[in-house]
Amino acid sequence: MWITVSTGIGGAIVQNGQVIRGNNNLAGEIGHVKVEYTKPKKCTCGERGCLEAYASGTAISKTVKERIKQNAVFGQEFEKYGLQTDAKGCAALAELGIEDARSIYERMGDYLARGIAAAINLLNPQVVILGGGVAKSIDLLLPVINMNIHNYFVEGLVETPIMQTALGYEAALLGATALVLENRQCRAEKAGKGIIMKNAWHGCSRADICHAP
After folding, report:
1. Distance linking the first and last C-alpha atoms of the chain
2. Which residues lie below 8 Å from residue 190, measured CB to CB, with a gap of 6+?
């Protein structure tokens, strides 16, 4: 399973190199799995308690601003290092050991653990791969996820590996390219042309892109 943690949170289920789309092409919407029921925050989808409302880049930025209102000294840390009061700035402070920033990412990691555990409990995937802009802070998040996820797993699924994508921030572009190639191949096959779309993108076949880790 692929999970992207960026401005929002999304996901995809892949089996045998093919994306499982679901009945309405919405399979993998992990960002709207409920992870909080006590005074749940409102999500952009209109519901409350969604993972995206607690662990996305947008959610971190909101939490940072709320924390600064409570503790002006925290805001001064951003000014001190010339950082924006957003997820990227918060990650930079967390890496510097600023406690308020670290606590935000620790809380975020716990919510991600809840959401990922729900997906693993349901799908029992071979591996969970994290990508997206916020996932660049994997060194902050992964230890927290791995420490807390055992609290939410079904027994027997605890060995499911969770790792960062090897494709970097270009993963979304590669995925979009793979889908274009897939659609073109399907259309060609339906038309009876039997075209095999190999080496159609910088020397990579559709299979190469789809099977990249």
Report:
1. 11
2. none
- Residues 176, 150: one domain? no
Do 86 and 186 lie in one domain? The reply is: no
The percent of residues in the chain predicted with pLDDT above 70, rounded, is 82
Which residues are bridge partners to 3 per DSSP?
A: 11, 130
**Same domain (yes/no): 126, 181:** no
- Helix, strand, coil percentages (3-state) for the chain, rounded to 5, are 50, 15, 35
Element containing residue 121 per DSSP (H, E): helix 99-123
The backbone region for 77, taken as left when phi is positive above 0, alpha when psi lies in -120 to 50, beta otherwise, is alpha
pLDDT digits (tens, 9 = 90+) for 7-25: 999 998 989 888 888 888 8
Range(s) of the domain holding residue 157: 2-165
Dihedrals phi, psi of 132, to nearest 5 degrees = 100, 170
Query: Is 194 exposed, middle or buried (CB count within 10 Å of its CB: 0-12, 13-18, 19+)?
Result: exposed
Query: Do 197 and 188 meet the contact criterion of CB atoms below 8 Å apart?
Result: yes
Overall pTM surpassing 0.85 (yes/no): no
Q: What is the pLDDT of residues 111-126, one digit of tens each?
A: 999 999 999 999 999 9
Residue linked to tokens 């990691």: 109
